[in-house]
């Protein structure tokens, strides 16, 4: 599954505070009642923070929960409480990051003075112990292990580590990119290491000295104590000049979803952001300053490419938006401030002969939208903000037409090029690419020709999903029911699923209705449905034979898991795929090894080889399992010979009768 890619970043504040040490010592000197009142009720913390007022309780083992985010904007000073999550999750530009490794090092000051510890300078401390953890699909680490010698995860089966209780335990939290699968070049959904700044290291004590978070403005009334389950939110800030994010997903019922799962009929709100600056122009700094704008329509080009799994819903909204929120957004008007076009091919960048997208789409079934800025400079020059962005927002409807690009389901691409897109040496850089995806159900396989062609890709075949082989003409709809293509009973908001093989031979259904209302967890959250659909080919290119029979079965092994569990396991950009060993193409099926052994090339979906192939027989092939005798080969020859003998015998008999009559 993907997940990722598609998309976003934040950073951890550089320090939880070098003053933590002093605050902890002072808190330890204050004698307060050690009552166990509810932290959530009385002190502003959530119960899971385990905030306990009064002096440190050395018999309690502390815990550390880290949640890693990617973001477009800087963070704010944290409180060390899980209540921070509410502010973070309210920002659509923050998305959890999966498979990022962190080390928690217990440290001692090199000078025996805690205040001298600087987490940015490893000469100020010595490491006593080293712990390691890896973020799950929700970006969370709540299990830590003794780190291996290289700082990575230990051998499988190593017991989980516990942090010691009592005073004078000081730690530095540090991101370990070298050991993070999220940034590994072999990860098909890797994060761009150049795109995100490292989360800054932080220094803290466990347990963590803190005061109550209540709104009482009288400092004397603040209650001091310790957090025994410290929550930290390190963030990677997106450092590129262009970005694309998913802001929200609205179901066909009109409700905004709490998890970024999508099925056909849902609406996704996207945001494109191109950074601009004012008053600090420098040549070859890769930043576009207002003073560098020419107003000839080629200062910035932004292109958006939608797969067949998405369809524009409504109009684009284009504004200038300050990074600080002030001044208010200034709307930009099409044909006055910028131009908009819809080319049918990969558009040109600012460099002649160079395209906006490095990879041409393997199909014509995509939609391009191109914006060119600025045709007027009045608004952008009058916008009073040191740094701001061109922000384009729009809605796209998730269709039932599958992923024509074969990238990861409900996904699309964007790219930006601008007049100051140079490196420090003055070399022109390629357009900045972006890719987004959301959690969705996908079926992907290869569609190929016969062995004589070395299993070359066969584009153009169309496929549907049906309930079973007894009703091959009723197709799966986005509501989970089945309808004929012209069924008058089908609700107008229901989309019928289909997938068409692209030029690379990839067949990819996307946005399948596996997140349904028919099965729910006890808390009301949706569960993954099993599917149990059959696959049927409904259109076949000329010269090739349709298999003519439905194939079983498309069934999801993750059935029963909640949406939250799926996000936690696979990340926020996952493609949830079926158990392909259950999808049997019988005599028409080929394995990846059979394809490559015959000299064919592996077909990939989302940069990963597909697990199964559907092979087609040519109409001239006599060995097709469903071949009729009049399709060629020896069958027709035998029929012709037999036919000639019969005709000859009939003519001979007729001649004998005529001769007899004349006699």
Automatic annotation (TrEMBL):
The keyword Nucleus is annotated on this UniProt entry: no
Transmembrane stretches, start-end: 635-653
Keyword Endoplasmic reticulum recorded: no
Taxonomy, superkingdom: Bacteria
Key words of the record: Membrane, Transmembrane, Transmembrane helix
Chain positions covered by the region annotation Disordered: 329-353
Bias type Polar residues, positions: 339-349
Any GO BP annotation: carbohydrate metabolic process
Name of the featured protein: LPXTG cell wall anchor domain-containing protein
């Amino acid at each position: 599954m993907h997940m990722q890619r598609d998309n976003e970043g934040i950073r951890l504040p550089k320090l939880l505070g070098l003053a933590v040490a002093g605050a902890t010592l002072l808190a330890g000197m204050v004698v307060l009642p050690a009552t166990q009142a509810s932290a959530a009720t009385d002190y502003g913390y959530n119960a899971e923070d385990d905030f306990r007022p009064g002096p440190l309780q050395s018999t309690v083992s502390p815990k550390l929960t880290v949640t890693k985010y990617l973001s477009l904007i800087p963070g704010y000073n944290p409180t060390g409480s899980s209540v921070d999550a509410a502010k973070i999750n309210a920002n659509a530009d923050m998305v959890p990051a999966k498979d990022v490794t962190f080390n928690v090092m217990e440290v001692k000051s090199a000078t025996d003075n805690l205040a001298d510890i600087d987490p940015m300078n490893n000469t100020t401390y010595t490491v006593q112990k080293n712990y390691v953890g890896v973020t799950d699909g929700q970006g969370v680490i709540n299990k830590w292990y003794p780190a291996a010698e290289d700082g990575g995860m230990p051998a499988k089966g190593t017991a989980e580590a516990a942090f010691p209780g009592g005073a004078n335990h000081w730690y530095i939290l540090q991101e370990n990119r070298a050991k993070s699968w999220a940034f590994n070049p072999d990860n098909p959904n890797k994060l761009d290491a150049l795109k995100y700044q490292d989360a800054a290291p932080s220094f803290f004590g466990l347990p963590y000295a803190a005061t109550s978070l209540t709104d009482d403005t009288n400092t004397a009334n603040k209650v001091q104590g310790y957090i025994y389950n410290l929550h930290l939110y390190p963030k990677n800030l997106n450092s590129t000049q262009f970005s694309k994010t998913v802001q929200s997903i609205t179901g066909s019922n009109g409700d905004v979803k709490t998890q970024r799962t999508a099925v056909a009929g849902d609406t996704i709100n996207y945001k494109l952001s191109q950074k601009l600056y004012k008053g600090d122009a420098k040549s070859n700094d890769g930043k576009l300053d207002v003073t560098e704008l020419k107003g000839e329509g080629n200062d910035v080009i932004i292109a958006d490419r939608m797969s067949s799994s998405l369809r524009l819903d409504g109009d684009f909204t284009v504004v200038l938006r300050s990074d600080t929120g002030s001044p208010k957004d200034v709307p930009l008007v099409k044909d006055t401030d910028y131009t908009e076009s819809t080319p049918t091919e990969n558009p040109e960048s600012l460099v002649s002969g160079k395209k906006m997208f490095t990879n041409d789409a393997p199909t014509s079934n995509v939609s391009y939208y191109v914006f060119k800025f600025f045709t007027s400079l009045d608004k952008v020059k009058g916008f009073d903000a040191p740094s701001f962005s061109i922000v384009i927002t729009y809605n796209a409807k998730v269709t039932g037409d599958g992923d024509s690009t074969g990238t990861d389901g409900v996904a699309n691409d964007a790219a930006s090029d601008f007049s100051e897109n140079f490196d420090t040496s003055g070399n022109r850089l390629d357009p900045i690419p972006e890719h987004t995806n959301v959690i969705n159900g996908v079926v992907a396989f290869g569609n190929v020709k016969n062995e004589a062609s070395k299993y070359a890709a066969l584009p153009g075949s169309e496929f549907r999903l049906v309930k079973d082989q007894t009703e091959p003409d009723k197709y799966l709809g986005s509501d989970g029911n089945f309808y004929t293509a012209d069924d008058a009973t089908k609700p107008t908001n229901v989309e019928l699923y289909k997938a068409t093989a692209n030029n690379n031979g990839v067949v990819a259904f996307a946005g399948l209705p596996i997140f349904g209302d028919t099965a729910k967890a006890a808390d009301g959250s949706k569960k993954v449905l099993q599917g149990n659909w059959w696959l049927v080919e409904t259109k076949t290119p000329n010269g090739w034979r349709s298999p003519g029979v439905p194939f079983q079965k498309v069934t999801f092994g993750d059935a029963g898991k909640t949406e939250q569990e799926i996000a936690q396991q696979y990340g926020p950009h996952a493609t949830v795929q079926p158990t392909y060993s259950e999808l049997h193409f019988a005599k028409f099926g080929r394995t990846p090894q059979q394809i490559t052994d015959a000299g064919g090339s592996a077909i990939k979906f989302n940069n990963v080889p597909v697990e199964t192939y559907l092979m087609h027989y040519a109409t001239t092939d006599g060995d097709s399992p469903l071949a009729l005798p009049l399709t060629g080969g020896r069958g027709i020859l035998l029929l012709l010979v037999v036919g000639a003998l019969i005709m000859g015998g009939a003519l001979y008999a007729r001649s004998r009768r005529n001769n007899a009559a004349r006699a």
